Amino acid sequence: MLSSLNISDFAGRLAAAEVPPGGGSAAAISGLMGASLLELAVNYSLKSPGQVVCSELLLAKQADLSRLHIELTILIDRDALALRGLLAAAGLPENGAEKQQARRLALQKAIKLAAEVPIETARSCLEVVEIAKTIVTKVDKMVVSDLMAGVAMAYAGIVGSLLSTAINLNELEDELLVNALKGQIYLLQSTADELKAAIEDKVYASAPFSVVRG
Ligand SMILES: Nc1nc(=O)c2c([nH]1)NC[C@@H]1CN(c3ccc(C(=O)N[C@@H](CCC(=O)O)C(=O)O)cc3)C=[N+]21
């Protein structure tokens, strides 16, 4: 399993361009880092004194984040499997009408999966960003930078996975599905942009983070 590789081995596998993982798995890792950084912020804040008021909210988000942590871990391998299926179908023989038809069907099925899996990754990453918005003013000041690093990573996970979906749309023959996926890409990306801007507006409004604002 890719998710049990150490960081250097995973990065090496990405760089080697031999067998998958590709950008979709990397996006899931980015989302996983985002979820984990939010967990750090929540766990730290629950332990620090003076956070008793919001502990109910933080405990609820802690549970959501541990589910997202598992989902995103699984998505690293699910995306690599989808990509592997895609490359395998693309490599099927094309000699003769029957084989050509078999290859076409296999390829369409594989592309559909490779387009749909990263949509799930983007959804999980978006949930991470949504959680960040609800807790950003509730966590201990000490871990706001960790939380914001988590937002940046989850946001990168959204962009990376939606790009992976988008590239597969070119080859997908089912026009209804293509249009539905395009709609989901647009909605997920624009929601992510709005949420990220709202969180940054809040955090970058004052020191020490105003210096980070572009
Ligand atoms: N859900 C999803 N996730 C992706 O990550 C994704 C995707 N869809 N759609 C297509 C693009 C393209 N991409 C590649 C990554 C590595 C090779 C690669 O390493 N190729 C090797 C060997 C491939 C093989 O072993 O057959 C080569 O061509 O030399 C190719 C293509 C990932 N993408």
Automatic annotation (TrEMBL):
Molecular function GO labels: methenyltetrahydrofolate cyclohydrolase activity
Residues covered by the Cyclodeaminase/cyclohydrolase domain: 7-184
Leading EC class: hydrolase
Annotated SUPFAM superfamilies: Methenyltetrahydrofolate cyclohydrolase-like (SSF101262)
Keyword set includes Hydrolase: yes
Domain of life assignment: Bacteria
EC number: 3.5.4.9
Keywords associated with the record: Hydrolase
Pfam families: FTCD_C (PF04961)
InterPro entries: Cyclodeamin/CycHdrlase, Formintransfe-cycloase-like_sf
Keyword Hydrolase: yes
Protein name per Swiss-Prot or TrEMBL: Methenyltetrahydrofolate cyclohydrolase
Organism of provenance: Sporomusa sphaeroides DSM 2875
Upper taxonomic lineage: Bacteria, Bacillati, Bacillota, Negativicutes, Selenomonadales
Gene this protein is translated from: fchA_3
